Amino acid sequence: MAERVLAERYRLDGVLGVGGVARVYLGTDLRLGRAVAVKVFRADSDDEQVRRFETEVRILAGLEHPALVPIHDSGVHDGHPFLVLRLVEGSTLRREIENGPLPLERVRALGARLATALAHVHGHGVVHRDVKPSNILLDGRGEAVLADFGLARLVDSPRLTSSDRMTGTAAYLAPEQVTGAEVGFPADVYALGLVLLECLTGTREYEGGGVETALARLHRPPRVPRDLPDELVRLLLLMTALPARRRPTAAKCAQLLAAAPPTDPVRPRRRWAPLVGASAVVVVAAICWASTADTTLRQPAAPAGPPIPTATPTTQPTDATWQPPTEQAPTTERPLTTDQEPAVEQPPTSDQATTTDQTTTADQATTAERPAVTPASAPPPLPDRADKPAKKPKHKDG
């Protein structure tokens, strides 16, 4: 432009960037004495570009957010429409990505701030439709600022282009933008997902700038690295889902990205704490049991009663008097207790004589063949004394 001052107020000092339909200049507001950014459209802009300029002015005038570039003024100079915007001194996200992948926490912070800005934009019924690294400015503190609403539109407004034309940058188009379907808020969420993925990997997911690049997302989904935190992998997969209805809202994305990641080192320790406590209880119980068992084994055994006969054939002693057995080791058989009395055999009664006579012979024959085994609950019979005649065993009617 031959004239370096627009509307006798804004002096153009240098070019900051060049777009398809406009240039952005570093300017000076001569009236207020401050630096500004001046976006100047070409003089040969067609009617569609003029309508886009008017739409951008109305949209920016209705938005106010820390992560958005505010508009100061607008006008026309010698047939050139222009916008006066706040100057964001810094760089762009595109230049930062060129230096390599960004740290995870840095990406989380950038994503949360941009998602919050998009939620504000969507809340006013506006779709940006051109979210990409070169349209994301970084101020002196490294904070992200979303710029360039040249392709933005109100969701209820009529289209300025036909449905068979793609509007936006091919590498960041949503599937519905490629197919010519209705474009809404999920398209911005999809583009933001690709931007965050590019920040993490340092490479553009869909390289190129033609139709083939735009169609690539219809054939394969973005490749999300699986070494990222699980919750971030799930979020990026949802943000870049092929069906628009599956994508979360911008507000939900901001909430998930701003949430602190689960990196609490105490959590695994709490998970093992009940097992450690239970092991300690088992060890203490085992020590107490061992101590008790050792004490029990070392106690002297009480004098036991007569030994319980086993299956080995034995003969009764012929001594005149019965002597208690020597002290023996504890046995698993039930010993004779002090409150049990030896069974005293009684002679059979008169009405049992016949039965006794009939069974005595059979019992003697059986006894001669195998030894008598006394149940564990009853003591063995005492040996006969020399001064008393032997008594016959008592038998009951069967």
From TrEMBL:
Pfam families per UniProt: Pkinase
Chain ranges of the Protein kinase domain: 10-267
Keyword Kinase attached: yes
Entries under InterPro entries matching the protein: Kinase-like_dom_sf (IPR011009), Prot_kinase_dom (IPR000719), Ser/Thr_kinase_AS (IPR008271)
PROSITE patterns in the record: PROTEIN_KINASE_DOM, PROTEIN_KINASE_ST
Disordered as annotated region, ranges: 298-398
Transferase among keywords: yes
Listed Polar residues bias regions: 328-340
GO MF annotation: an example: protein serine/threonine kinase activity
Top-level EC class: transferase
EC number from the UniProt entry: 2.7.11.1
Keywords in alphabetical order: ATP-binding, Kinase, Nucleotide-binding, Serine/threonine-protein kinase, Transferase
Superkingdom, taxonomy of origin: Bacteria
Gene3D superfamilies linked: Phosphorylase Kinase, domain 1 (3.30.200.20), Transferase(Phosphotransferase) domain 1 (1.10.510.10)
Bias (Low complexity) ranges: 311-326, 351-368
Biased composition (Basic and acidic residues): 384-398
Protein name: non-specific serine/threonine protein kinase
